[in-house]
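hey so u asked for the seq, here:
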Amino acid sequence: MKRIDLSCIVHESRPSLLARLLRRTQGSLKEFVAPQTAFGYIALVAVGKCQQLRLLDLSLVSQSIELEALFRHIQDLPHLVTLYFPPSSISDGSKLTFNWPPRLKCISLAGGIENSFLTNTCVPSTLHELRIAHCPFVKDSSIKHLLNKASHQLTVLSINYHIPCLGFNAFDKVLIICPHLEKLTIAVDYVSAHLFEEENSPAGHPLRWLNLDSSGNPGVEIKITPDDIFIAVAEERLSELRVVRAGKKLGWGEKSKRMVVDLNELLETRAEEKGETGAGVWIFENDYSGQCEAFKGRWNGFEEEE
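ran it, structure tokens below
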């Protein structure tokens, strides 16, 4: 068995049964998505024996997992490339640095991570995708410290809610900090329209895919409009941008129809000039799981209502 996905399991089960399943498949298992319940310490120990594992997704686990124990059992997995932290991760603060698995390419951070963890961790040299969400204790200064350490290698970045310690414009300079980003997902809670101004959107930036999400908190839906992005593309500062996806909670569908149409046409025109396809603007339903959301509607050929 190469993949076990227990994300749909909602009933209670015994941790020993899950550990037994992992032990029986440890020789061939490459992807494991843990269930919400029944993932205890003995299951974590069993995961550490799965030497062929490439993806470990603990994003649904409700039980508390100590970071010290997590790293102790996964740090030697030779083929692990994708790791989703549990939202219930905790640390007693006694250890500041951890050894990452040697081939990690994608890390999704969540849970009770402390600022010291972000500032002291050594970024894996293989890392190119970083996701941060549902971290109640981290501040923007520690996230920026981590991004600066990884800036030369990150091509995909996601900073999404809920991170209550972040300011309303904490990451307006994210494109300056990460000059090689090709895909950015960010909650408008933590950026403003200044993100797309000349000082923060350098000419020639390689960004091609922009996801704007929202917590739905009052006031955040008016922080960024389609015109803010339109100007940055039209002025050749984000000349490589092809796809813009906006969460439905931004209200673009109701309040900014004409601006959405204009941005969609500009992105399609730029793509056609280079013989590319698939450009445009999409509106999507917010997905609180942090996983990839399904497209809900594309503003392609949309006619503004009279």
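The chain has nine helices and 14 strands. The CA atoms of residues 284 and 294 lie 7 Å apart.
lmk if thats what u needed
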